[in-house]
Amino acid sequence: MPRMYPLPKPKPKTRWQIFAEARGIKKHKRSRLVFDKSVNDWVPRWGYKSIKKGPLHAPPIVEVTGSKVPPDVDPFEAASRKKSERKTRQKIRELRNKAEGDSLNRAHTALERAKTSTRSCGKFDKKKKGVNDKKTIKRKAVSRP
């Protein structure tokens, strides 16, 4: 059976998808509960009463290793600063992936489709300066006998 329209083009892969294919990484579901030895029970992996908030994962004393560490540096503050740096780097990666993923072109086509999705095909909508109208097919009214 022939198709009326051509097959849709595949979306471009993100950096992660290309990397995962090269390494053979596959998606798998992660369990929500984890066994915590300190409590000797199953606890959530994230959220309220999670294993991350347990006594083992928030030590009150941090051992300073190496002689190059200055004595005036707070190890807790340094850890939080490292975490915030990791977060900002991740945000930069996300933005780069969006730019590379051709998301702007997809957004542009979605916007064009939304403009003409009204009953009047966008004929009476307010138009922005400098934006060209996409030509639509003009249909003649069918006369009825």
Automatic annotation (TrEMBL):
GO terms classed as biological process: ribosome biogenesis
Keyword Nucleus found: yes
Domain of life: Eukaryota
GO cellular component: nucleus
Positions with biased composition (Basic and acidic residues): 91-115
Region (Disordered): 67-145
InterPro entries reported for this sequence: Ribosom_reg (IPR007023)
Subcellular location per the Swiss-Prot or TrEMBL entry: Nucleus
UniProt keywords, alphabetically: Nucleus, Ribosome biogenesis
Entry keyword annotation includes Transcription: no
Record field: compositional bias (Basic residues): 81-90, 136-145
Matching Pfam families: RRS1
Residues passing through the membrane, by range: none
Family recorded in the similarity comment: Belongs to the RRS1 family.
Functional description taken from the UniProt entry: Involved in ribosomal large subunit assembly.
Protein name as it appears in the record: Ribosome biogenesis regulatory protein
Gene: BBOV_IV008270
